[in-house]
Amino acid sequence: MSIQQESRVIAMAGIHNFRDYGGYAARGGRLRAGRLWRSGQHSEATPEDLDKVHALRIATVIDLRGDSERAGNRCLRHPEFDGEVLFHPGETASAAGRAVHEEMVRDVRTADDARQAMLNLYETLPFRPVLVGTYRLYMQALAERESPSLLHCLAGKDRTGVAAALVHHLLGVHQDDIVADYLLTNTAGNAEARIEAGARHVREGFGISMDDAAVRVLMGVEAPFLERAFATVRERHGSVEAYARDVLGVTPQVLAAMEANLVE
Question: 31 pairs with which residues across the strands?
Fold first, then answer.
């Protein structure tokens, strides 16, 4: 059996949405547990949080944020962390210092507005040049490195969610499991604290006229968001596999190496 959803999550005081997205049935076996980690940013991590992360022996961190996000919210690392942090330089959002879900919300007032903004956002995520650059680095790392890795952005839900879903799809995880893992963002850890923190940031940047329901949509995930990203990929490239090959550099050889490292 795969890892129970609730046992995937590691409770942290200052890191939101920290969880293992391995353990699912995949093509030829099952994804190894303890190899594929995902989360939000670590800028507010406590010493206890950093001890928990260090115990996982994570050797590669993939930071999907833009340069200004990293500068404004420096991620904390354990004193003994000696791994590598990978990212493609530049901005992944069009507004410097903003997360991608924040750049879409200037005209959002209602939950329906928020849903449309998120659908529009997800059409763009697989094709943003800087984000694509980091996705490429991630796929290469999964092919070349056997050690555990951690994938994160600001909230660990959109840029991270698409990347994790791509890895799942390429390794043959069932669509139901892909969606279930994606939706786990809505309940992982202290979701209410994450929503509250995100709401403060959104309101500071875009005013207080936004409905509470709209804020909750922006700070959560819904299956149609991910479906829109994959549908756009298929419209432009014919298949997810062709997109991964042509845009992310996941050749058959790279995919075989990923499988060797991640499937048991």
Answer: 263
DSSP secondary structure, 155-198, as one string: SSSSHHHHHHHHHHHHTT--HHHHHHHHHGGGTSSSHHHHHHHH
User: Is the pLDDT reported for residue 249 higher than 90?
Assistant: yes
> Beta partners for 63?
152
Q: Which pTM does this prediction carry?
A: 0.92
**Buried b / exposed e along 22-54 (16+ C-beta atoms within 10 A):** bbbebeeebbbbebbbbbbbbbbbeeebbebbe
The Cα 82–Cα 61 span in angstroms is 11
**pLDDT tier at 215, thresholds 50, 70, 90:** confident
Q: What is the pLDDT of residue 166?
A: 98
CA–CA separation, 188 and 186 (whole Å): 6
Beta-carbon contacts of residue 137 (< 8 Å; ≥ 6 apart): 62, 86, 87, 88
Which residue, 171, 177, 176, 144, is CA-closest to 263?
Answer: 171
Q: What are the residue boundaries of the structural domains of the chain, listed by start?
A: 5-262
CATH code reported for the domain at 5-262:
3.90.190.10
Check whether 30 has a pLDDT greater than 70. Answer: yes
Q: Say whether pLDDT at 59 is over 60.
A: yes
- Using CA atoms of 235, 240, 246, 247 in order, give the dihedral in degrees to the nearest 10: 90
